[in-house]
Design brief:
Layout lengths: L1 E5 L3 E7 L13 E7 L1 H11 L4 E8 H13 L3 E7 L5 E7 L3 E4 L8 H12 L6 E5 L10 H9 L5 E5 L2 H7 L6 E2 L3 H7 L7 H13 L4 E5 L5 E4 L5 E4 L12 H16 L2 H16 L7 H8 L3
Parallel strand pairs: 1-4, 1-8, 2-6, 4-5, 8-9, 9-10, 10-11
Antiparallel strand pairs: 2-3, 6-7, 11-12, 12-13
Amino acid sequence: MIYTVTFNPSLDYVVQVNDFKCDAVNRTLSEHVFAGGKGNNVAVIISNLGLKCRALGFRAGFTGIAMEQMLREYGCDTDFIPLDEGMTRINVKVKAEKEFEINGQGPLIPENKIEQLFEKTDALVKDDVLALSGSIPNTLPDDIYEKMMQRLDGKGVRIAVDATQDLLLKVLKYHPFLIKPNNIELGEMFGVTLTDDEQIIAHAKKLQHMGAANVLVSMAGDGAILVDENQKVHKLLPPKGMVVNSVGAGDSMVAGFLAGYLTSGSYEQALKLGTAAGSATAFTSWLAGRAEIEALLEKL
């Protein structure tokens, strides 16, 4: 079973506006509401690709109920912990000549609810997969990634982590199955600017020496480089297309990679499906469906 954790999920209210102006009334051309949060994005793409996935996290208020219901409609199994106060945040994303985002803070999460989440992840068993994605909200302890992975250490659970550089560096001692920095984040971890593939590969291997099994480095239009646990290096350029959406492409790459590996056992196929999924989401207005992903997969 694949599990995802979204510590601060959301309802994403996405609006299209032409000629956005400040200090004026702007009328939308279109508007949509989606279940948001990086872990939720991973869960949706995995479900779109036909694998069973269970989304974990917290929900609060009427917005949390709506968010969880949307995920179920996308085919995800859900097991969110209800909070007694507050509401799941609403993030506003404006797509105009430029993109703007206003992200909510989210509800306060009490200690007993955090322990309930730990109990759910403690139940994972050998060969289960856990995807941890995104930053930690200030309503949670900043070491929650580490605590969760420490409790699972030695159980044979494959853990994928897609988070900010400090979070990634702190969890390497628990030997995550997959980490996915981008090339800029990878350089920042070591205080350098990476200018070519050789430097990216060398620093990805440094992360392996620090504990990561597989290091997947996304490079936007330059594709992605994977240094797998067997020290084999794979590089793949993305398919051509017009980028219309910057939200969820990295999450889609993680989901595609996990789905590709679990169904084929091949890191080469995992990178292909991850690249196809990430590109398909970038080329569509929101998270890509299976048809869009498979159409790009054929071109790789």
